[in-house]
Structure formats: structure tokens, C-alpha cells
Amino acid sequence: MAFPTGQFRGGIAPSTGTLYGAWEGELWTVNGSGEVTLFSSNLAGTGFVHFGRNNASVPNTAVVTSAGALIIDTTTNTVTAYPDADVGSPSCMCGYLGYLFFGYGDGTLRSTNYNTTDINSLNQANTASNPDGILNVFGYAGQLYAMGDATVEIWGEPINATGFPLSRVGFNILPGIIGPHAVAGWEPEFGNPPIWVGSDGTVRQLQGYQAAKISNADIDRDINRVGFLDRPSINALCYISGGHAFWQMNLPTKSWVYHVNEGTWHERTSQYSTRSRLEKSVFFGNKWLVGDTDSANLDYIDIDSDTEVGAEISAQMISGPLKEFPRRPVSYTH
Prior knowledge:
By secondary structure, the chain is an all-beta fold. It has 1 helix and 31 strands. It has one helix spanning 217-224, and strands at residues 10-15, 18-23, 26-31, 36-40, 50-53, 61-65, 68-73, 78-81, 92-96, 99-103, 108-111, 124-126, 136-140, 143-147, 152-156, 167-173, 183-184, 195-197, 203-207, 210-213, 235-241, 244-250, 255-259, 264-267, 278-284, 287-292, 298-300, 307-308, 311-312, 316-318, 331-333. Strands 1-2-3-4 form a 4-stranded antiparallel β-sheet, with no helix packed on it. Strands 5-6-7-8 form a 4-stranded antiparallel β-sheet, with no helix packed on it. It has a 4-stranded antiparallel β-sheet with strand order 9-10-11-12, with no helix packed on it. A hairpin with a 2-residue loop joins β6 and β7 (68-73). It starts with 9 loop residues before the first strand and ends with a strand.
């Protein structure tokens, strides 16, 4: 049996029984038993991808890569150019409320008609609060969030019968996002508000229409040590283990994890690395699946496992200063 090569670039589940996963130049399907099948070997582009699907009886599933907008054609088992040229050259996309939404570097938002791939030239809006473009777009709690590097705009009801289907709600959230894949937590299975790495070098969580700062000084310092050219590589993922929700930020050489239930932070490192090997999570088959920087594996979060892909997990705990001088802080490593 053939298996993917390269690194997992992202995935989407258009049905409860099928996951589409992107690897280097290829699109694979994964079923509920974990079996993988090559769907297409012509997935253009490199790096992480943005997937989206609508609510048609046979969902239309699209993907935006560094090579542009593509459609997953289930009749021919191929990945081809998006069927409507009005899509242009988007930087990101998502599927929500029965529409496919596309974001662009000049701040434009475009949408399809309801449950189709057709794009009317009037189905267009502009995120005019700041001329910062759109790096990521996602749906959460009935509204669409368009994330630029300066602001986050919210679009939602009333639904328009013609033109762009959503209306600007009018709340412009500050700051924007540091890179196109530095947000996670909007997934409905996560059950918590989205969290992103802000363009100001902090970590923010959506609270109503505000971006609440949840990072501490150590984390802010590590984010701001990342060079300008490396900032787009900062990425985030989320997962739940034993009923506890975790959001993870991967910097080039370090990973921080936020324990959402407790509001606490810890570092995560994999064996022989300064950072975690986990990247790009997706919920499928009642499991949180995660990509692996060290292989083409698609792993899953398992509360009963005390290893990481067979490798030992080391833990270090450092206490705060003790009260009685001259007793020193305690360090424990396992």
C-alpha cells in the first residue's frame, strides 16, 4: 500500500466518513479506519493550505494553496483549477453558512452563491477599516472573521439576497494576525473561542468583540524574537485531551501550549528538538489528528499514551521562589 510523503499540510472532513488531507503535491483520502488512499497527485503549491466546503448534498470542497484556488473534483478524482475565473488569486478561504468565502491581499472578500461554486461578480465586499489585506478567514458562532495584519473584521447578519451575502457588523478587533496560519480554535469541536498570535507579538483570545491578551511576558518575548521574515511561519493548532482543551503555538524554535480550561501556559518539546513536532490539527473520526514535522505521519491525540510517536516525553517542572531564605527554587526533570 502506498503512503503519503512529505509533511501534512492540512485537512478537511466533507463528510463523517472521509477526510481529505494535503501532503507534498498530493491529496489523499483517509477513512474512519485510518486507511489512506491517493486521491490526486496534482495538488499544486507548497506549504500549509486553506480548505473550505459548502453544505450542498454532495459538498463542493475547495482549497487555496500558494498556487491559487483549486477544486476537488470527486467525479474525476482530480484537483483542478477553480471552475469560476472570478475567483482570481485569493490568499485564503473557508466554507461557512453554505458559501465558500475567499480573502485577498488587497482586502477584498468574495463569495460563491449559496451551495454552488459559482461566483457572481457582485458577490464582493471590502474590509475597509484598514488597508491591511486578508491573511486568514474563518467562520465562528454564525459570523465570518476576516483577519488582516492590522485588524480583524466581523461580517454576519443580515443575510443579503443579492451581492455579498453578509453585512459588516462594524466591530474592528485589534490587533490583527501575525501570519496566515497563526490562528486555531474556531473549529466547532473545540468548543472554545478562537485564539491567534497577534501582529503586535502577543497571543489573543476572542472574548465577545474584544481580543483579550492571554500571553505572559515570557511568551511575548519569544514571539518578538522571531525575525520579520520568519513571522509568516508561526502556526497554531488546537486539540482536546481528557476533556481539557489545549491551544498550541509553534515558533521556528519553540512551542508554547495554552491550557484553556486552567488559563495556564507550558512549553512543549519533542525528543531531540527544541520545539514540538505537532502541527496542523483536524478533528475526524472522534479524534484530534495532528501532522508531524518529522514524518508524513498523521497522528492522533491519545490521553492514555505516555509517548509521542513512540518517543519518550520529557517533563520539567520549576517552582517559583520559596518563601524562606536562603532556600532555593526547586527544579524537577523526568
